[in-house]
Amino acid sequence: RVLASIQAPCAIYLNPPRSGLSADACDRILAVLSRFTPRQVVYLSCSASSLARDLVHLESAGYFVESLQPFDFFPQTEHFETLAILVRR
Question: Block means of pLDDT (10 residues each) for the chain, length 89 residues?
């Protein structure tokens, strides 16, 4: 039902746990991307390594990184968040 209510153009916002997208979540998101072809994917990550891994999958679906912006939500720690904006080729 939820998928049927999505209308183009749209954007998808992802905010996975530190481990990034699970294999199942990645497969489902790629299916949604192929069906609805949103113009943007916005991905907020708390792990640079899982972000890099997940970006490979999103790029294989026809999206490329338009911008990356780090955010220091936890001052005086080594933790930071990265916001990736991807657009459809």
Answer: 63 94 96 90 94 97 94 91 92
State the pLDDT at residue 6: 59
Judge contact between 61 and 28, C-beta under 8 A: no
| Calpha distance 58→68 (Å, rounded) | 14
Residue partners of 55: CB distance under 8 A and separation at least 6:
43, 65, 84, 86
What is the token pair recorded at 3? 């998928």
8 A C-beta contact, residue 44 and residue 83: yes
- Beta bridge partners, 12, equal 41
Catalytic residues: 46
